[in-house]
Amino acid sequence: MNQNQLDTDLIIAGGGLAGATLALAMARVVPELRVTVVETVPLAPDALPEDYQPSYDARSTALAWGSRLIFEELGLWSAVSEHATPIRHIHVSDRGHFGATRLHAQDHGQEALGYVVDNRWMGLCLMRALLDTGVEWQAPAEVTGMTPTEQGVCVNVLKDGEPLTLTGQCLVVADGGRSGLREKLGFQARTEDYGQNALIANVSTGESHQFVAYERFTDTGPMALLPHGSPKQPGNQSALVWTLSDTALHDILSLSDEQKCRKLQERFGWRLGAFTRIGECYHYPLKLSTVDEAVRPGVALVGNAAHALHPVAGQGFNLALRGLVTLVEQFRQGVDRGVAIGNLSVLGEYQRLHRQDWRQTVQFSDSLIRLFGQPLAPVTLARDAGLMGLDLVPGAKRWFARKAMGTGGRRPVLPLSANVGEARSK
Q1: How far apart are CA 35 and CA 23, in angstroms?
Q2: Greatest CA span in the chain, whole angstroms?
Q3: Cα separation of 365 and 241, whole Å?
Q4: Using one digit for the tens of pLDDT, what is the confidence trace for 330-343?
Q5: Strands (DSSP E) along 174-220, which ranges?
Q6: pTM of the model
Q7: How far apart, in whole angstroms, are the C-alpha atoms of residue 403 and residue 64?
Q8: What does the alpha-carbon distance between residue 150 and residue 383 come to, in Å, rounded to a whole number?
Q9: Distance of CA 285 to the CA centre of its chain
């Protein structure tokens, strides 16, 4: 069987934010290749609402400035920005100590350091864009296994309870780290349990956030409050990420909403006035998960399937997005050279280029947790002096800002043709 007899060229397991973004990037950058997404949710016009109504309890993601640039290249940003709350300032502090630093978008010539976007809204924008492409959607379905072939891969799929197979040049696993597919395919993840949980909720405060994101380190773990709601007017709603031990999480979840607000007030303080409302609470255990070798002939892991980080610095999805762009870059170059996209020379180069980025990002996030988790007085003094030093040393502050904006390392650029880009979404 030759390659033009394959069912498709690229099979993507998972159509969430990572998988859908990869599919759209492929349609924009390598349109001559056929792409099939295997996902539990159908892709159809009648499955997408005409009007988006933001929910108070919607879960959200912090998009770095560098991620905005990627979405612009994909022709997606004009749609996403309709409900993207800008982060114009970042305030980092150490509870009970003098250390603090502040970042301002205007100091870096940007309108924002990042944005907070509801996950559902990003998903809808991606789905609407994909409807105008040739991407095929197998749903409701899931990938259950894969066998290498001379031409690429033979992928086992369970669709509507019935088994079927798809042949292609390459399989990309984009279904997160908890589906079990990664392990079924023989990839080994190294996991380190932080012994903490992230509690996620939206909250309202007596004073406006003024587009400030707060990262507050406490003796029981970090917490973040990100501006949420209107992209135009500073409001009183913020997205909360609260790090808690197992015992503390259990205690907080047992409280009434009014009691939760009081506990949150005790930990965060009064910078935003009184906490007046807390929405539905989600939670998950915090683990650092990485896969050293995330590729093999015909298969690549992306997103949380390849690496899952602590949310302390909001780097997870932004790192995944840069990895997706790097992968698409290599697919484009492979096609131009006449090399199958599942060839290890193509996938190995993707891993080499992306490895430095994820190692630096993991080190940055992990070191923050360890540094601010130390209660010893000498360490406390050193980190507080470091926070103060960021305000006093311009070079150090620029480095920290680049990390926060997702522009501190190699920035992959999609090789789009002249007629593809922001105009494509209009």
Answers
A1: 7
A2: 68
A3: 15
A4: 999 999 999 999 99
A5: 190-205, 212-218
A6: 0.86
A7: 9
A8: 55
A9: 17
User: How far are the Cα atoms of 118, 127, 146, 341 from residue 150, in angstroms, in the given order?
Assistant: 42, 33, 13, 13
Domains and CATH numbers, the chain: 3-191+287-425 (3.50.50.60), 196-283 (3.30.9.10)
Q: Tokens standing for 168?
A: 């292609």
161-167-168-171 Cα dihedral, nearest 10 degrees? 40
239-258: burial string, b at 16+ Cβ within 10 Å, e else: bbbbbbeeebbeebeeeebe
pLDDT in tens, 186-211: 998 888 887 888 899 999 999 999 99
- Of the candidates 323, 417, 303, the one whose C-alpha atom is nearest the C-alpha of residue 29 is 417
Please state the length of the chain: 426
The answer to whether the CB of 13 falls within 8 A of the CB of 115 is no
CA distance 266 to 1: 66
Are the C-beta atoms of 403 and 313 separated by less than 8 Å? yes
